[in-house]
Amino acid sequence: MSEGISKYPRFVTKNWEPFDAVELARLTEKIVCREKDAARKYTAFYVAGVYGGIATGYGVGCCLRCVFCWVSPSRDFPETYGEFYTPERAYECMASSAKKSNIHKARISGCEPTLCKAHLISLLDYIEDDQNIKIFILETNGILFGIDKDYVKKIFNSFDKVYLRLSLKAGTPEDFQRKTGARKENFEIPFQAIRNIVDVAGIETLGKRWHVAAMSLDPRIMTVEERTALLKRLVDIDIRLLLLLEEEVVDPYDMSLRRLKAAGLELEWPLKKVYKPAREALQELLRGK
Ligand code: SF4
Questions:
Q1: Residue 16 forms part of a structural domain
Q2: Pocket lining for ligand 1, CB < 6 angstroms
Q3: For residue 122, is it within any domain?
Q4: How close is the Cα of 213 to the center of ligand 1, in Å?
Q5: How many domains does the chain have?
Q6: Which residues face 55 on adjacent strands?
Q7: Residue 2 within a domain
Q8: Pocket residue to mutate for ligand 1, from 22, 58, 112, 221, most atoms within 8 A of Cβ
Q9: CA 225 to ligand 1 centroid distance, Å
Q10: Handedness of CA 139, 142, 143, 149 (dihedral sign)
Q11: Would you say residue 277 lies in a domain?
Q12: Which of 85, 171, 189, 216, by CA, is between 20 and 30 Å from 125?
């Protein structure tokens, strides 16, 4: 166990001790990544209905502990779930399910896919050479891209098929700690990841190669003040981020409900109202409405 983390963090509870997200990333990599052959743990390969059908490798392990996370208990107990797949084997599983279903997209889900860097890069090499798969959607929480600009460069400069979706969890350091279980000092890292992406790929590739998502449409989990703080941070980087901001609400998945309960958070169901999406508000403003 790492010196900074005395016990492997599972799911947020009422008396939670915040962890360092980068340390948890490294600790989790020791469990879910195998150095000698760049293998990574997965629990399943299948075709998911989202994105109009996408070949999905359900990976194991994350460096955050979001209270609204829908992922199976493999997130919290990575040592007990999954089998190791080399990049080649993981690619073959994704490629064959894509081919069988006549779909042209692939992704890793159920985990933080940027953990196990060697695995991801090698997997993307295979994807890049595949004739059938046209796009690989890389869904990330931005922690590792925030601390490693070279990683961002490698992804954008070497892999034309990658489309990146970076998902923000909170709008202030305190809310980040409360919602992800990670220390509030880590709050800035995903915003640094956005700056790294803008530097490497250019803002003009926004919407073509990447965009930002945020759990910011749901008043049950984000106050007006927190949302304003989050949007302001994005505007400070580049106002155009708002025009393509994908805003989400908490869905009542079984695991999400259990994690919210364990964290002592009570949400009212069904969801009765949402905020007006920032991109709509900005578009109206630009049209002079
Ligand atoms: S929501 Fe995403 S970033 Fe948050 S814990 Fe779940 S898998 Fe990790």
A1: no
A2: 62, 64-66, 69, 71, 75, 112, 141
A3: yes
A4: 13
A5: 1
A6: 47, 106
A7: no
A8: 112
A9: 23
A10: positive
A11: yes
A12: 189
Tokens of 123: 């997997």
The pLDDT tens digits along the chain (289 residues) read 655 667 899 999 999 999 999 999 999 999 999 999 999 999 999 999 999 999 999 999 999 999 999 999 999 999 999 999 999 999 999 999 999 999 999 999 999 999 999 999 999 999 999 999 999 999 999 999 999 999 999 999 999 999 999 999 999 999 999 999 999 999 999 999 999 999 999 999 999 999 999 999 999 999 999 999 999 999 999 999 999 999 999 999 999 999 999 999 999 999 999 999 999 988 988 888 7
Give the residue numbers spanning the domain of 249: 21-287
CATH of the domain at 130: 3.20.20.70
